[in-house]
Amino acid sequence: MDINFANKVVLITGASSGIGETSAILFSKYDAKLVLVGRNETNLLNVANRCEKERGLKPLAIVADLSTDEGCERTVKATLEHFGRLDVLVNNAAIGGPEGIENATMEKFDKLFNNNLRSVYNLTRLLVPAIIESKGNIINISSLAGIAVAANNLPYGMAKAALTFFTRVTSVELAPKGVRVNTICPGITATNFRPRMTGQTAPEYQEWLKVAEQTIPMRKACEAGDIANMVVFVASDNCKLVTGTTINVDGGMQFGDVYGFLRDKSDKSDKTDKSNKSDKKDKSDNTDNSNNSDKLDNSDNSDKLDNSDNSDKSNNSDKLDNSDNSDNSDKSDKSDNSDNSDISDKLDKSDNSDKSEKLGHL
Ligand SMILES: NC(=O)c1ccc[n+]([C@@H]2O[C@H](COP(=O)([O-])OP(=O)(O)OC[C@H]3O[C@@H](n4cnc5c(N)ncnc54)[C@H](OP(=O)(O)O)[C@@H]3O)[C@@H](O)[C@H]2O)c1
Questions:
Q1: 310/159 Cα distance (integer angstroms)
Q2: Is residue 127 classed as helix, strand or coil in its secondary structure?
Q3: DSSP structural state of residue 178
Q4: Cβ–Cβ under 8 Å, residues 139 and 12
Q5: Nearest atom (ligand 1) to Cα of 44
Q6: Which of 191, 300, 314 to mutate to test the pocket of ligand 1 (most atoms within 8 A of CB)?
């Protein structure tokens, strides 16, 4: 099977980190000319340099906030002025939002929808004429959170579900013009996404991942490369009749024990939890949520990143990348033998209820 993006222009949003970063490097291995968009200039330029080293093709790096009209318009203008065409658009940039109906204010709702949905609509709308001209394709990175139901993930899950619908409708609108549109839904993927949403340190995140992996049928979280492989494959001519689809890359998580593990344990209708800890959980949930919300609200994520020591961040991703998967799978294998109630018990007894209760924030 041949994958070749020579003379094709690929625009990836959120290319400064995680799935977008890894996709950018993979596309460059297949000779794509790249437009990389993100907010953190240092990280973005670092990724651009690494892409250039693959095949000597210098990406166009655009620092832009795609939640603004200005950011989208400038991205489109710079792309078309620089390369004169666009073949593949990967709408990948997004932020998390661990809130539900009781604490997602309109401000938080608007911020999430502007970042994760309006930006995609706006950028796609502006680039569609160029994609029709090249008979190219669009890939929207959604989430299992737009399919599975998990409490306290409401605006995020709604925006991701809408993104999948956006794919379906635009695929039908654009198919007669030779343009394909697809959604890829990652399950839990080891990137900076969750740590930056929750403020977890790398070791805390690794610990959380180990617990989370017990909820995944394949007993393994995705790595950014697992998603990037699918992005590049679907974008390639090997998939010339694949359109309007939603492709999960999630280790089977959509059929995992969603109701057993991804539920919000503060649900008062849970009569099985008779111990005092249900009270504690309710309190800790509220605190956790408000803590998380505070972290999200009071800090502009981009500021946090911009001001953060870049080497720290790369350390962080190094730690994620270098995490010993065989170790994890060893442990997972062991956990395979335990039945679900065992795992439930472990989660229930763990001091840090936060770790077991917010698995749904994909
Ligand atoms: N990681 C998971 O477990 C998981 C699971 C399911 C779905 N997903 C989805 O996968 C995609 C990639 O996430 P990731 O895990 O790679 O997360 P990540 O490491 O946090 O990367 C997110 C990227 O989006 C960019 N971004 C966010 N808002 C932006 C804006 N307004 N304008 C421009 N760029 C913006 C960020 O840019 P800066 O860093 O430069 O600010 C960053 O490059 C997202 O759509 C996410 O919802 C992730």
A1: 30
A2: helix
A3: T
A4: no
A5: 40
A6: 191
Of 168-172, 274-278, 342-346, the range with the highest mean pLDDT is 168-172
> What residues are annotated to the active site?
156
Q: Which residues contact 299 (CB under 8 A, 6 or more apart)?
A: none
**Contact present, 109 and 150 (Cβ < 8 Å):** no
CB 351 within 8 A of CB 207: no
* Distance (Å) from CA 167 to ligand 1 centroid: 18
Top-ranked range on mean pLDDT: pick from 138-147, 250-259, 271-280, 321-330: 138-147
**Atom number of ligand 1 nearest to Cα 68:** 31
**pLDDT tens string 186-211:** 999 999 999 999 999 999 999 999 99
The single-letter code of the amino acid at 116 is N
Nearest ligand 1 atom, CA 41:
40
Count of alpha carbons within 13 angstroms of residue 26, beta-carbon side = 21
204 backbone dihedrals φ, ψ, rounded to 5°: -60, -40
Q: Which two tokens stand for residue 112?
A: 């999430």
Please list, in sequence order, all residues whose beta carbon lies within 8 angstroms of the beta carbon of residue 342, skipping any fewer than 6 positions away: none
Is residue 236 in contact with ligand 1, taking CB distance under 6 Å?
A: no
251 pocket-lining for ligand 1 (C-beta < 6 Å): no
Mean pLDDT value of segment 338-343: 36
Residue to mutate, 193, 246, 302, 303, ligand 1, most ligand atoms under 8 Å from C-beta: 193
Contact yes or no for 138/181 (Cβ under 8 A) = yes
Token pair for residue 52? 């250039």
Q: How far apart are CA 298 and CA 275, in angstroms?
A: 35
d(CA 46, CA 2): 28
CA–CA separation, 119 and 141 (whole Å): 13
- Find where tokens 């919000």 sit: 264
| 149: helix, strand or coil | coil
pLDDT at 335 over 70: no
Beta-bridged to residue 222, according to DSSP, are: 189
pTM: 0.78
